[in-house]
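At your convenience, could you comment on the folded chain following this short note?
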Amino acid sequence: MKLQGVNAIITGGSQGLGKAIAQEFILEGASIATCARDQKLLSATLAELQKFAGPSQIVCGESCDVSSEEQVARFISFALSKLGSVNVLVNNAGVYGPMGATETVNLAEWIRALEINLFGVLFPCRALIPHLKRAGRGKIIVLSGGGATNPLPNVSSYAASKAAVIRLMETFAEELKPFGVDVNAVAPGPLKTRFVDQVLQAGPEKAGASFFAKNQRWAVDGATPLSLGAGLCVYLASSESNGITGKLLSAQWDPWQRLHEFRDSLATSDIYCLRRIVPEDRGLNWK
């Protein structure tokens, strides 16, 4: 098993991709602590996940709003007390936020989405990094989305927060290199989760005709399997990916199963990074 003896924290693990990641981690031998805002749903999920665990594995959780620094500190303390130590942090919790032209959406809801998506990564990282530094090793994984690499008209709070999260990830990667902590992001691809339902409920006028049509197709024909993103998270949490850091990886499109074969090239290039494109990159000379 790839994660035998690993202790992991997974935020937003009560449903969707977070639940799939938690299950894959357990099947690969890890003990996990997860959180969600809905205690009832979280309790049901923990009971389900427990069925996949061996006798020596710990599966635990606690309700937590990841946008609250106080609640996150309490949850990280809870996880450390239950697991003893933590090797891996998966920042999965996130929301789409309000949909519609940016100047028309509820500003409080726009800011709220930013708090969950951005601060919901910052707070768990800040709380756990001292522990990882003392251990001299560790893995931090951030769940991103299409909003990080492409404009998303009518879903601007999601797009802005996810782009910010990637630059935060890259910055953490540089800060933590001397301590043996790898930090990467995962773009899981279009998922048939509650997010699709939210877009369909919003309708084409608020979500945008193109984005709405894509979600209609995903709802009917299916989308990227949850297991693909969960598998990439397992890979990044495992020792096989040691030394790969500061990268945004697509579960759907990148050859992540073999990335360790290109470890040296990745360490000295801007492949899988967000960077500015200049005319010379496109064979043009404007000087």
